Fold this protein.
Amino acid sequence: MIKKALLTGFSSGIGFAYAKHLVNNGWHLDLVSQNKDRALSALDDLDYDHCFVHSCNLSSSEELHNLIKEISTPDLLIANAGIGINGSVGKNTPRDIQDATYLMFEGVINLIEHFLPKMKEKDSGRVVIISSIGALIPMPKSSIYAAVKSGIYSYGRSLNEELENTNVSVTVSLPGYVRTNIHKRSGLEHLTKKIPNWMWVSADKVVADTEKASKKGKSHIIPGFLYRITSIFFDLKITKIIWKTLNARK
């Protein structure tokens, strides 16, 4: 039986690691990326016949709507596409906020609301949402990012509870610092030197832990053992102080 997956933001970072994992396990893939050059390079690296690449700006409701019409219901939907949005209150433009909110929250909801009922009809399917550890702890000067990631985390957990007595699940992954190029693209390259090595996890580790949790039908997962342990202390004042110091934005 052919297994079909839809993966957004596949051309780098966690998305590319997820694409490699799925290729290695024989999935047929609908891959979505806005950056055509990165998509073509990633596709060459995957070197796999059963891939179809869709070019789409997922910050646009119109483009997302057109994308949805092109794709049949997948067995696995991975909502991974994301951007960093940083800056103290009042520094981001309304357009920046609108685009980030649609890309990582409203658009993700629209994507899932379209395909999830069809998964329920056939009583089979998995949804994975890549959120962030920032959904669980304050992120000064990244408040928009934290808010969006918190919102989609709450949405995914609630959906998984709603689907409890079905063979369909929604799992939200909450990675901490992952060794990808997103920090450079977001103007936060200084954090790659400032954050201790133990706080970094590989994209492959994120995928492995996330897939394990998803297959078990868990509502959420914090990839990386040390992150899971330290998350117990996130509400402590000392933890928030340390986190704020380590994550200070320029």
About this structure: Residues 4-246 form a domain with the Rossmann fold fold (CATH 3.40.50.720). The longest strand covers residues 28-33. The mean pLDDT is 87.
